[in-house]
Each structure stands twice: as structure tokens, then as C-alpha cells.
Amino acid sequence: MTKDTSFREHHRNESDDGGEAAVPSYVASKTLHSQIDSSVESIESDGRIHFAVKSDGDDILDHLGLAPNMIKEAGQANNAKPTTSPDCTRPPKMAILMLAVGSRGDIQPFIALALALQRFGHRIRLATHSLFQPFVEEYGIEFFDLGGDPRTLMSYMVENPGLMPGFVALHTGEVGARRKTMQGIIYNCWHACFRSDQIVLHKHMNIGSNDRRKDVSPKVQRPFVADAIIANPPALGHIHCAEALGVPLHIFFTMPWSPTKEVAHPLANVRSNDNEVKQSNLLSYLLVEGMIWQGLGSIINRFRFKYLALDPIHPTKGPMILHTMNVPHSYCWSPSLLPKPKDWAENLAVTGYTSLDALNNYAPSSALVDFLAKGSRPIFVGFGSIVLGNPEEFLVLVRKTRSILQTRMVLALGWSGLEGDIQESEDLFVLRDDCPHEWLFAQVACVVHHGGAGTTAAGLRAGVPTVTVPFFGDQFFWGDAISRAGAGPQPIPYKTLTAVSLSQAILSALSQDVVACAKTLGARTQSEDGELGAVENFHACLPNKSLCCALTDRAACWRLISTTTLLSPLAATVLRKEGLIDWDKLELHRSVNYDIVHGPYDPLSGAAWAVTDLIVDGFRGMGEMIAEVAHVPIVAHRATKRSLARLKEAKIGQNPAATTTKQHTATKAEMATHKHIGGYMLTGILRISKAAIRAPGAFTSAMAQGSHDMPRLWGDTTVRPTTSTTGVRSGISNGCKELVLGVYDGTAGLFVQPVTGLINGGLLGLAKGTAKGLLGFPIKFFAAANGIVGHPLRGIDVAISRALKSDGMKAIKTQRMLQGEYEFAAASETQKHEITDKWYKLVDELGGGP
């Protein structure tokens, strides 16, 4: 058995050519990139995208619908305010899930933030790689394993930096292996939202682990369901899990990920003249996220469709989804190094560097203390989590540099791959164990590192000059930022690094001006409280009114049916045990609705999207019916072989018990490989039938959505946001709205658009407004005609699909009930009486009913 057998066995029906339900195919052609007049000139050796952009960035982003705020608090749709606690202006105590993917430098800020949130009474679960489990639990934080090995990823990134892999990686299957790893991580993002243990986790973990222990972390036994999610962008399941659960999402990251005109995306290398630089910077974010979606969009859509029972996202809507949803972000770098861009909204904050209070517990080795005390301050050299391709060559370079400078050095091995006995000297100390950067950097004269966000923060806070040797990705970005701030020389890419160039950079860093600048910057960054800033921004962006329980200071998860009364697990359990409510009167509460728009930008691509999906279903069904023809003789042939084998064993007098055991084992293996006779035929017939039944609704709803959004392409700002069709009722509602408002907007546009254009742009604006009105008139009527038919049919389709497959909500309800029982057992009698007293008071205030 190969190491990834367990994953393939679980997902053999979830591959691109298998499964009980087809995921609409991922169409990559003519997507976002075709809407931009840009040229990707080259992929740099460091993996960054080198490109030039000539289009108007504002118009393109407006076409993509980035302006409207599409996050809605639950209850706003029907203008009903939830009945909550009078103290709901303050955030309630919540169970917060943190999703963090990356190296140690990416995980450490989450630990610092988790400790700060715990001081406010929140329960924190940090889901990340198993490699960091001891690191996380050392600080008393609940751990959940997302799978994946960051060391393998770092080694891959050094060989294939950036977004575009090399030919060797494609040829050897490395790209496919990384896709499988990301698929496992994305699936485990959902498990982390509500599992109280990890019984099934290892079927998806690190794609290939044979370890199926019941629980990797014995401490994770208390029932858990996320009331909010904090994640970094590489944990790609974040927004989709938040949409399925109906909970707030907050992004917490170490580098810019939100579009701005002031700086380009850290993974893009933009070339433009002075007049185009702002637009190029803005569009670099769209291009980078578009390329990420090209590679992983099919995995994400399969995850949404099969695991979360959510509609797949159209390729034109996948990139920039965090920004179309106006998801709040907290960026943990110092505004002294990189101020918050002026074009960022209020929900995007630069909160400052975070730091862990590890110094009190750290005891350095006596050898390190002696080395630091014997002479002048040394130079620190270390690349942290980077896995070097040729570590011995790097060691030779370090020795040559030390010889040229005649200075003392501390060489940190990290994940470099250097092993064995490395000869030390009076001027060279080899640091093999972990050592807090905050402690060590305060003892050195200059730091030489790879430019990772965490190491950059430690160097700046220590107030020492920095020499950056970037390998890939955002390391170049931070190296340039340090150089612009005057705290170090220009970064030296590792592939061009020599002993001479490194020596010159260190001498430059030790100049009087750079040392003074580094000290000033260090004093500023040390005065910042990044953890508190991130907590305050997180709390400020929460929809408190739809989060608070009406009876406790905890987050609400239940709503009394046909009312606006919100209850926490503890409150609901107390009231049920007192006989005041029944479980069948409660439904899961959604504190936030992320109304993700799934459709295309024009009716033609919408029709193509729907037709392609139906054709794929049809051909798969025919393929399964044809497979039945080959399936029958195979099963018959193997059954004959088993019968002959049994006769032979009987003749030679083999133990009957052993023979029976072998037969049972062989039968189980056969059943695992083949369906029963007629199984493929039945599956194929059902698949073709489903495609035929879905065809009218899928076609007309896709045409309606495409027609609805099409006026955005010529800058029509009157296009209304749409809401998702989640069932029959919402389908009928959306169809009626599309009919009425489509006819109204199409007719009104003939008059409103020219007048608006005249006011804003004079005669030229009048001409443009008239053109927009004339173009929009037939398109909006067409959307109305298709919407009144397509949306109700789509609602019926969604309702039937959800009735036939699980969307995970049953497991969530069970966990919420268990959570209530757990909290009830831990609650005091005083707390229980307070809940019932508040209930009676609430009933009286509402006139006899909640």
C-alpha cells in the first residue's frame, strides 16, 4: 500500500472524473485575465510575475463589483432586529477558530493574537500543521491538525519559487503532490470548524499518513463549533467555511493582500511608467489571485459542492472574493515601516508587529552566553525555515565572508539542511537549537536573513541593521521595504549571493547612518502593541447585534423559530431542561450571511457554463453505462476463479476455517473494487436523468445571472447586488425581484443614466449615459424574462439536491447540543437561575412570547 492510499480510497469518487455528482467544470479560458489589457512578460527566477498593465484599474475593479458591501447581518433582509442582550454592544465570549498555513514565522503571530484574545474570555482553537503542535500547545492553546508538512513545502518553494512551477516539478509529479496536499488542508479547514476530535482527520491529513490514531491531541475533547474564523489567505477554505456556517471571517496576515494603488502585490514584479504605476499596482492583486485560482479553483469548487453543499463559484468571481465580500483584515506589520495605504477602507487595518513573551522562559546555553560575552557584537546569519538545495556550499560562503570581514558570527542552522559536525571557532558559533529572535537579535550588531515577515519583524524591533537575502515570494518585498526605510542595504537574491557581495552589504549595514536609522525604527516598533491593535480591529468589525445571546454573555448559535430571539448553547440547554422550550422550536442561527455571487458576467458565458456542466454529466453517465458492459464479465471471471480455487483447496485438504477466512477477505476486497452487477448502469441512468431534469433551470438561471451582471462591463453602477438561491422560497422571491426590478431598472435607465452622465461628465457624460441606458434596456429585460423562470427552477433544484445529500449541518447541530450539555454541567446553579430569570423577564417584556 502506498503512503497516500487512505486518501485516494476516501476520494476515489471525488476526482475530476468520478463521483456521484459532477462539479461544474472549471473553465479557465477568457476569464479575468482576458478582461485586462496586460502582458505577462516573464516569470522571474524568483517566481514573481513580471508584467505590465495598460488598462484603467478603477473601471476593471468596478466591473468586478468590488465596490458594494455584500456582507449582511442576519435579520437585515427582513428588516427584523434580533432580540439580544442589552450588553450586545460588547463582543460576546466566542469560540474562535484560527486557520494558519505556512512556516513558523506565519504561525507565531497567530499564537500571539490567540493569547491576547484569550485574555478577553474567548476560546481559541489554532488549526495548523502538526509540526507546530508542540509550539502551539506550549502556550496552552488548543490545537487542531490541518495536515501538510511546511518543510516539504519550503523545499519545493526554494526549487520552484513563486506561482509558476518549473518543468522538472511538472515532470516528476511534484505539482500534483502539492495540489493533493492543498486539497487535504482545505478539507481539514471544514473539519476544524466543528470536530471535537480527529478520528477522520487522517484520511485527509498530509495526503498519505497511515497514522489513524483516534486523537492526535488528547486535549481536544471538549465540543467545539466555531463562532468566528480568523485565517491567513493561504488557508484557502476560510471564506467557504464561513459561508457554510454563517459566521464572521477575519483575515490576519503578514503581507499586503488587499488591492491598493500604493504598493504592488508582494508576489508580482510590476513594470510600468510613472503615469501607469498606480493602476499597475492595483491590478497586480487581481492578476496574482487569478493565477492562484487557475491552479486551485477546481479543488475549491469541488470542496464547496461536495462537502459544504454550496454552489461552485464561477471562474470570473473566484479571485478577489475576500474583497468583494468586504471581509475585514488585520495586517501585522509596523506602520512605521509600511503605513496603511490611503485607499484602503476602514475594515483594513495595519495593527503593528506582534511578539511572544518567550524571553521569561528562555534559558540560553552556557556556550552561547560565553561566546556573546567574549568579544564584540557578532553578525547573525540564518535563513530560518528555508530548506537550502546545497547547504555545504552555503557554509563555505559564510566562512569566506567571515574571513573577509574578520568579524565574529553566529550561524543559525534552522531548516537549512546542514548536518554533522560543523567546525566552530572563536569567531564562529553554530546555533543548532531554537533561540528566540527577540533575545538573540538584541545581542548582535547586524542580522542577515531571508526576509521572512517574522524574522524581519524581530530584526526591526531589536533596532539592528538588516541585510536581506531573499529566496522567493514576499521576501523580496520586505527586503525592499527595509532598504527604503534606511534600515539596511538593497536585498541580495540568494541565487546571486557571493562572499564578496555579502561582505559589502554587511559593511554598508554597519555604516553610521544605517545603524542610527535602525535604532530609530526599532524604538518606534517597540512602542506599538500589535496584539491589542489586532484584537481591537477584530472586535470592531464583528456584527455584535447578531452575535449576542439574549440571556448570556456568550455567542448565540440558536434562534427560536418564527422569532428574533437568539440563544447560546448554555441558554438553550437550561431552558430545555426547565421545560420552557423544545429542541424542535430551535434552528441554527447565522450571524453573518456571505452572499457570494456565483454567476458569470454575460449571458453567453453563463449559458456555456451551464451547458458544459450538463454535457459533462451526460457523457459521464454514458461512460458509466458502457462500463457496465465490461464490468459484468470481469466479475463473472473472478467469481469463476474463486470457485476453482475453493475446489482445489478442498481436494488438498486445507483447513476449512482458513479457507473461509480467505474467501471472506477476498470477497471484501472484490466488493471494494467493483460495484454489484447493474450498479454502473443504474448510476449512469440516474446521472443522465438528473442532467436532463436540471437543464431548463440551470440554463435559464445562468442566462439570467449573466444578463444581470453584464451592464457592469460598461460601467453601469446601477446594477443591483443579487442574493443566492438557497431553496424554493428564495428561488421564487429572487425570480419575482428579477422580473419587477429588471423591467423597472431597464426602463428607468433610459432616463436616469443620461441625466447622471450629464451631471457628472457634461456633454461627454450625457453621451456615455445615453449609450449605457440604450444598451442596458434590452439586457435588463432579457435578465427579467429569464429570471422569473430560472430562479424558481434553480430553487427547486437546490432544495432537492440538499435533501438528497448531507451539507454537514446535522453534525453541527449535534455538536451544538453536546456543547450545551458540556457547558450546563460546568455552570453553577446561580448562572442557571440567572438565565431562567432573564427568560421570564424577556417573555414579560415581549407580551407573553419571546
TrEMBL record:
<keyword id="KW-0808">Transferase</keyword>
<dbReference type="Pfam" id="PF06722">
    <property type="entry name" value="EryCIII-like_C"/>
</dbReference>
<keyword id="KW-0443">Lipid metabolism</keyword>
<protein>
    <recommendedName>
        <fullName>Glycosyltransferase family 28 N-terminal domain-containing protein</fullName>
    </recommendedName>
</protein>
<dbReference type="InterPro" id="IPR004276">
    <property type="entry name" value="GlycoTrans_28_N"/>
</dbReference>
<feature type="region of interest" description="Disordered">
    <location>
        <begin position="1"/>
        <end position="22"/>
    </location>
</feature>
<dbReference type="Pfam" id="PF03033">
    <property type="entry name" value="Glyco_transf_28"/>
</dbReference>
<feature type="domain" description="Glycosyltransferase family 28 N-terminal">
    <location>
        <begin position="96"/>
        <end position="262"/>
    </location>
</feature>
<dbReference type="GO" id="GO:0005975">
    <property type="term" value="P:carbohydrate metabolic process"/>
</dbReference>
<feature type="domain" description="Erythromycin biosynthesis protein CIII-like C-terminal">
    <location>
        <begin position="435"/>
        <end position="510"/>
    </location>
</feature>
<dbReference type="InterPro" id="IPR050426">
    <property type="entry name" value="Glycosyltransferase_28"/>
</dbReference>
<feature type="compositionally biased region" description="Basic and acidic residues">
    <location>
        <begin position="1"/>
        <end position="15"/>
    </location>
</feature>
<dbReference type="InterPro" id="IPR010610">
    <property type="entry name" value="EryCIII-like_C"/>
</dbReference>
<dbReference type="InterPro" id="IPR002213">
    <property type="entry name" value="UDP_glucos_trans"/>
</dbReference>
<dbReference type="GO" id="GO:0016906">
    <property type="term" value="F:sterol 3-beta-glucosyltransferase activity"/>
</dbReference>
<dbReference type="GO" id="GO:0006629">
    <property type="term" value="P:lipid metabolic process"/>
</dbReference>
